[in-house]
């Protein structure tokens, strides 16, 4: 499936019209129509918002060969965040608890929140 097909399928699974989805995304219905007809591609911020809205990964949206929908882990204490580029020596795996702690610190120190 292409990105356009996935966006349309996910929207329809929710029972949303293009107009409803557009409102949730803060874009026009025409923008959604263009995404779903592959006339344009959402920018990275919109892709992240789409992935969060539908509970899927950006990898799922962008990789045509990946057909599995992301499901949240049921036992978060045992969940490990998977690193995408393990060949880099400056990257390590972190637990979900560590990631949440990092996000909380960033929220407290961010100027825009």
Textual characterization of the structure:
One of its GO terms (molecular function) is DNA binding. InterPro entries: Cro/C1-type_HTH (IPR001387), Lambda_DNA-bd_dom_sf (IPR010982). It comes from Candidatus Limousia pullorum. Keywords: DNA-binding. The model is unreliable at 76-80 and 82-86 (pLDDT under 50). The termini are far apart. The chain contains six helices and two strands, in the order αααααββα. The longest helix is centred in the last third of the chain and has 14 residues, at 96-109. With 113 residues, the protein is mainly alpha-helical. The protein has a two-stranded antiparallel ribbon with strand order 1-2.
Summed up, what is this model?
The chain is mainly α and 113 residues long.
What is the average of the pLDDT values? 81
Portion of residues in beta strands equals under 5%
Gyration radius over CA: 17 Å
Total strands:
2
Architecture of the largest domain, CATH level 2? Answer: Orthogonal Bundle
Name of the top-level CATH class of the largest domain? Mainly Alpha
Unreliable residue stretches: 76-80, 82-86
The class by helix and strand makeup works out as: mainly alpha
Reading the helices and strands in chain order gives HHHHHEEH
| Count of individual helical segments | 6
Give, in spatial order, the strands making up the sheet with the most strands.
Answer: 1-2
Keywords: DNA-binding
Protein name: Helix-turn-helix transcriptional regulator
Pfam family, one: HTH_3
GO molecular function: DNA binding
